[in-house]
Amino acid sequence: MHGPASPGWLLVALCAATGMYCLLRMRSTVEEQRRAAGGEALMGFGMAAMAVPAVVLTPPRWAWLVYAAVFGTAALRALWDARTEPHHLHHLMGAFAMAYMAGAMATAPGHHHGSGGSGVPLLTTALLLYFAGYVLLSGVRLLSVPVLAVGGGRGGSGTESGALGWGDRPELARACRLSMGIAMVAMLLTL
């Protein structure tokens, strides 16, 4: 989004690293882990792309429309999945927020935010409240997850003796979700 360059680059790095870890989680042997990780990888990389400081790259209007279409499609997919698995409602909120931000960027005059003096839109406020609450709840949940030993055997691969591999570590998955929630709050604040 369009904020200062240094925090923007930190946001890009955080989101890209989260996206990379989510790609690693897609190698999990657990079906649900793989499916959730795919959507989270899309979110991480999409957030990284959208957070590139405007002084470096100001995407044309059509690029924002592409982001809106991609994340709108992801929101529809999450809505479909939420019929049978309610935890996909958070993915729906994330994808919707990304589509909303991309749409706001596409329609903003000169692609700059904060112009017009009309204050913060109600939808932005609602999304900020949701993601701020999600960050607080995720932080509490992260504190309650036991840290599992890595490399539970001779080779230290994390796959022997029932120990989990890097793609199946619940504390790392929750830390990634917390990171993306924090990044979402930061991006919504610059909207």
Write the layout of secondary structure elements.
Elements: H1 5-25, H2 31-50, H3 61-82, H4 88-107, H5 122-144, H6 170-189
Concise overview:
By secondary structure, the chain is mostly helical. The protein has helices at about 5-25, 30-50, 60-80, 90-105, 120-145, 170-190.
Poorly predicted residue ranges: 111-117, 151-161
Radius of gyration: 18 Å
What is the overall shape?
A: globular
Q: Give the number of DSSP strands.
A: 0
The helix content, as a percent range, equals 55-70%
User: What share of the residues does DSSP label as strand, in percent?
Assistant: under 5%
Structural class: mainly alpha
Major sheet: none
Number of domains in the coordinates? 1
Could you tell me the mean pLDDT? 82
Q: How many angstroms does the end-to-end distance come to?
A: 7 Å
Write the H/E string, N to C.
HHHHHH
Number of helices: 6
Structural account:
By secondary structure, the chain is an all-alpha fold. It has one domain. It is built from 6 helices and no strands. The longest helix is centred in the C-terminal third of the chain and has 23 residues, at 122-144.
List keywords for this structure.
single chain, 191 residues, mainly alpha, 6 helices, globular
